[in-house]
Amino acid sequence: MRIAVIADTHMPRGTRRLPDRCIEELERADLILHAGDFTEGEVLAALRRHAPVVAVHGNVDSPELRRELPESVSVEAGGARIRMVHDAGARRGRMERMRARFPDADAVIFGHSHLPAHEERDGFLIFNPGSPTERRRAPTRTMGVATAEDGAVRFELIDLE
Fold first, then answer.
1. Cα–Cα–Cα angle for 114, 45, 140, rounded to 5 degrees
2. Which terminus of the chain, N or C, has fewer Cβ atoms within 10 Å?
3. How many CA atoms lie within 13 A of 159 on its CB side?
């Protein structure tokens, strides 16, 4: 299973749009996971035109999105158990916090910081795809692609610039 992983799209805002490479990856995906901060519901609706979407709400999402989307969600893909939350907290201790919070997960996807992260310890993964639209302190705009099969998930960070 091919999964497009994005977060922190923060749209609409000015002329901001998803980069062409991001759209290509969304169209190739069997599933889209969005780790929050869409801002408005029209972004979620647009993503659903590419592939099925599983998402959580973020801290800047509209009241409608906050009512529609959960704070955290569990997804089974290719036999792998993936949990997703918008804000995984401070970098220090994040791996341990996520492992304790989601002990049944193989991986946790999160957003919020706009800083890509990809860490593994003892078979447990945490992944932040960064943002495809607003890099902030990250060197480039990014997203992730995951492959889930045979009970395992692998993440790849995609540079969109």
1. 20
2. C
3. 4
Question: Over its length of 161 residues, how does the chain's per-residue pLDDT go in tens digits?
Answer: 999 999 999 998 888 899 999 999 999 999 999 999 999 999 999 999 999 999 999 999 999 999 999 999 999 999 999 999 999 999 999 999 999 999 999 999 999 999 999 999 999 999 999 999 999 989 999 999 999 999 999 999 999 98
Identify which of 85, 78, 89, 98 has the alpha carbon closest to the alpha carbon of residue 36.
85
Amino acid, res. 127: F
DSSP string for residues in 6-57: E----BSSTT----HHHHHHHHH-SEEEE-S--BSHHHHHHHTTTS-EEE--
Rounded Cα–Cα distance for residues 64 and 29 (Å) = 26
CA pseudo-torsion sign 38, 53, 131, 152: positive
Q: For 128-152, b where at least 16 C-beta lie within 10 A, e where not — what string?
A: bbbbbbbbeeeeebbbbbbbbeeee
CA separation for the pair 71, 6 (Å, rounded):
16
